Amino acid sequence: MILEERVFGMTTKMDQAEAPLYIKVHESDNVAIIVNTKGLSEGTVFPSGLELVEFVPQGHKVALVDLQEHEAIIRYGEVIGHAVKPIPKGSWIKESLLTFPTPPPLDTLPLATRDRSSQKPLEGYTFEGFKNSDGSVGTKNILGITMSVQCVTGVLEHAVKRVKEELLPNYPNVEDVIALNHNYGCGVAIHAPGAAIPIRTIQNLATHPSFGGEIMVVGLGCEKLRPEQLVKDDDGSTITSLQDQEGFHAMVSSIMAMAEERLLRLNQRKRVTCPAADLVVGMQCGGSDAFSGVTANPAVGFAADLLVRAGATVFFSEVTEVRDAVHLLTPRVVNEEVGKKLVEEMRWYDDYLASGDADRSANPSPGNKKGGLSNVVEKALGSIVKSGTSPIVDVLSPGEKATKKGLIFAATPASDFVCGTLQLASGMNMHVFTTGRGTPYGLSMAPVIKVSTRTALKEQWHDLIDVNAGQIATGEATIEDVGWELFHLMLDVASGKKQTWAQKWKLHNDLSLFNPGPVT
Amino acid sequence: MILEERVFGMTTKMDQAEAPLYIKVHESDNVAIIVNTKGLSEGTVFPSGLELVEFVPQGHKVALVDLQEHEAIIRYGEVIGHAVKPIPKGSWIKESLLTFPTPPPLDTLPLATRDRSSQKPLEGYTFEGFKNSDGSVGTKNILGITMSVQCVTGVLEHAVKRVKEELLPNYPNVEDVIALNHNYGCGVAIHAPGAAIPIRTIQNLATHPSFGGEIMVVGLGCEKLRPEQLVKDDDGSTITSLQDQEGFHAMVSSIMAMAEERLLRLNQRKRVTCPAADLVVGMQCGGSDAFSGVTANPAVGFAADLLVRAGATVFFSEVTEVRDAVHLLTPRVVNEEVGKKLVEEMRWYDDYLASGDADRSANPSPGNKKGGLSNVVEKALGSIVKSGTSPIVDVLSPGEKATKKGLIFAATPASDFVCGTLQLASGMNMHVFTTGRGTPYGLSMAPVIKVSTRTALKEQWHDLIDVNAGQIATGEATIEDVGWELFHLMLDVASGKKQTWAQKWKLHNDLSLFNPGPVT
Ligand SMILES: [Ca+2]
Ligand SMILES: [Ca+2]
Ligand SMILES: [Ca+2]
Ligand SMILES: [Ca+2]
Ligand SMILES: [Ca+2]
């Protein structure tokens, strides 16, 4: 799909990095984006004959030909809108010059139509992980404490602090103790259709591979979400209810005792050599810009293909950033059933947005637009590139656990922390996050590798960005180079041999549940 | 409204505390609730002639007369349902024996019809508070750091930890430094009609009276919720955007520098004597039981009347627990305009629940039911008692700032932390929380006084419950006694002279925004 054309302009400077540069993604595109950090001024000339008739900022689009009123504006080989008036060649195509196209209709999509020449298996790649009895593999060794209701947060935080100070030092193989904070469990319409999502999310987070099968649940006692709905507790050792305790000190003691039992067992966990196939990698973008679809996301897509060839599981997500490009994805599903599930998730989200008097135009953000993305169509075309080229073997509803290997569409909102939380619930043990504007994203349950779309961001955020894909724009690196770099880094980070910047600074954003149902 | 009849049964024991006891609330009631902690067994006889024909648990209802099929079951002098079959006198009235009544229709409610004999002003009561230049008064002295988007959480947490360790000890008059964590700001439909609520909540939390007018906002840069929408920043000293910083260390340094500037000024704040009229008290219940409306809530209602007589502001809230008793409240509004606002909030919530395929029956919780509350009608009748008897001078939409003194209905969900967060946004500087089942509730921005509805809870949670209203059930204390105890305790806690248990253990639940709009 990506047929990049990188065109340097004339420059008096010898430094190629500062030479005027635009990138056209697909041969049929009639627009290109400007690469230079400070944009390019009126009068800039390219050997292709293009001359800018006005200033164009970095990442923003320039018209490669004279565009008539109503003419289709094409990027990634797809229509991203129509010209509201004639746009002369060399003009800056501002957001206001495009109409907003209707999304692909959902009832006529081609399902599973693409020929699948099977990709060559990629063998011999391994990492050092924590094998669990259920077959899953953790990249971390953590005690995770589940809560059935937010009411217990204050007590649990107090207890976790004491566990970390007083007990954790005795169990050096255990990396961390975390409370799975959320704001669900009571004061919500627990029987509303939307409630299934947050409930299964909490349930699936409790059994995350980083926790080594050691589950404990702290509940209150009177909450709507019954702890017994979340986990089995045959011998009564898995759940503690604060209302059964004789006051605050007893609550803290009970939590600490349950924690210590589990720390003892978790401390026995050792890293062993696992095939790359045991990775479950969640791909996501946030704070995107016009380079996302040209640099970072294609490199991530290349790495996704490597992972799939190695037998691993790869998630891509973010329904609102897939919706407008779904016609490019439905041909890639493995069969009609998976195709229908994909379409169903799109339809569900259309309805969900409509029920809140919103629509897909609520995405992108002001920062996305400043970064050159005119609308969600252009954003989606750049976003789905993260999925690479593999067949889509399954579709998960928000928070469902993955049961297959290969490329999976895990339906989630695009909201960064909601998406990350749901991918964790689906079993993700490694997260790759691409960003153009920059966001200091981090999770406690899985390592997060941050990939910048622009070199300027990597330079500015030298101690937050792990991989720079910006060099792809300037031609200093290829998509393949960065894709392989990322693949190797994933294995090293999964093994605990390298730390991401977010791990180094312990940047842990809160979990963020997706609750489409009402609060009461 | 409360015309309690407390009836002791025969006992061979000399200890009155263990004598069989039921409470009938209103003279027209045909049911009463059992007071004894372990319930009462079949054959228990009362001097009224009542004999239990089966075991009845604590807080649960007993039929005082033979009830015919379809006959109205009356508690608090109001119909809480109809008998689904004949119920003999002395039977346990289980939830399944009541039909669920339709709620009061909203278009025929009597507005502002009650005669208002003005209450005698209560003078001479004061507390030691922190006066702010805008006229508000804080009960705490805290640096509150606002975030425009959840993306900054990880960095901000790191910075706050360092501020508390390295800077706060130099400013002994400042009690705490807190990040106003939330999961809003991006990845949400920012132009959906529901978005107004979380946005004004964040805005009004930023200017909470505990923060002494010292505002600082940490933003990312590309988020949908613009920091400039939240606060004015004429001189550029109020907002920092992480995307403007040269990496992680620069971000932390910039936050720490902004924080220190403010700590310096906050450290100058001193407590001064303020009239009780400067209190803004939010009343709430959570983990309610059948005693809530007989013991704790009436005592809180009595204290609410004292506060109003002293010129203070009192909020009651929790729409789903007001809806079924709204016909008892609309007569009490001061004028038609306020009445219409009250009705409008009920209607908005009916629609909100319906849009998520839920209704008011989503409340109560399993614990409420175990505590004897059959349905939300019975719960509501006990819940609104917190409002006392004063006229309702104003109605606030969720998260709006109060501008009047007196009794105000601040519309919020009943969800404990959502309600508390919204009452804080409305300007609450003191929180009173009644509980029957027990919840270790706490907030960082205002003290929380916890009142138990039952003596057994106070005995069990000796180091969490501040006031025991359970003695009202057994006749060992009157509603007036506990109401005055609470009033005096509020003044002492507001002055920093006494600490609540939640303050002592630093039990701080997370803020919980109310976002009725979709995520994207
Ligand atoms: Ca994205
Ligand atoms: Ca995202
Ligand atoms: Ca937190
Ligand atoms: Ca309540
Ligand atoms: Ca409540």
TrEMBL record, chains A, B:
Answer whether the UniProt record assigns the keyword Lyase to this protein. yes
Summarizing the function annotation, the protein's role is: Catalyzes the dehydration of galactarate to form 5-dehydro-4-deoxy-D-glucarate (5-KDG).
Q: Which UniProt keywords apply?
A: Iron, Lyase, Metal-binding
- InterPro entries to which the protein is assigned, alphabetical: GarD-like, GD_AH_C, GD_AH_second, SAF, SAF_UxaA/GarD, UxaA_altronate/galactarate_dh
Provide the protein name.
Answer: Galactarate dehydratase
Q: What is its EC number?
A: 4.2.1.42
Instruction: Choose any GO biological process term that the UniProt entry carries and state it.
Output: D-galacturonate catabolic process
Which top EC class is given? lyase
The superkingdom listed in its UniProt entry is Bacteria
Pathway listed: Carbohydrate acid metabolism; galactarate degradation; D-glycerate from galactarate: step 1/3
Cofactor(s) the protein needs: Fe(2+)
Which SMART domains does the UniProt record give? SAF (SM00858)
In the record, what lineage is assigned to the organism producing the protein? Answer: Bacteria, Bacillati, Bacillota, Bacilli, Bacillales
